[in-house]
Write a structure and sequence with these properties.
single chain; mainly beta; Jelly Rolls; 6 strands; 46% strand
């Protein structure tokens, strides 16, 4: 998916203005939840989303969603990641 397509999708779903995030290689969070839903587009690198069913790797051009209240962790491996994230409350 292109960045323009993703921005259009977020707008159509009523998301806040998306924010860009950069994660260094070997970045990791503990398992946690958010009070908002998030949609993410990987712009560069690889982003790893850990859910209760395992770790899922997303590469440039791929998207993922984390519904509000979902227990998850965010990681990168040996490769950094740059993402665009839209939130719904």
């Amino acid at each position: 998916m292109t960045e323009d397509d993703f921005r259009e999708l977020l707008t159509s779903q009523g998301c806040d203005e998306p924010s860009e995030y950069s994660y260094s290689a070997d970045y990791s969070t503990e398992l946690h939840t958010h009070e908002f839903g998030a949609q993410l587009l990987v712009l560069e690198g690889e982003f790893i989303l850990e859910l209760d069913d395992g770790k899922h790797i997303f590469k440039a051009g791929e998207t993922c969603q984390v519904p509000s209240g979902t227990v998850h962790a965010e990681h990168t491996g040996e490769v950094f990641a740059r993402t665009l994230v839209g939130r719904t409350y």
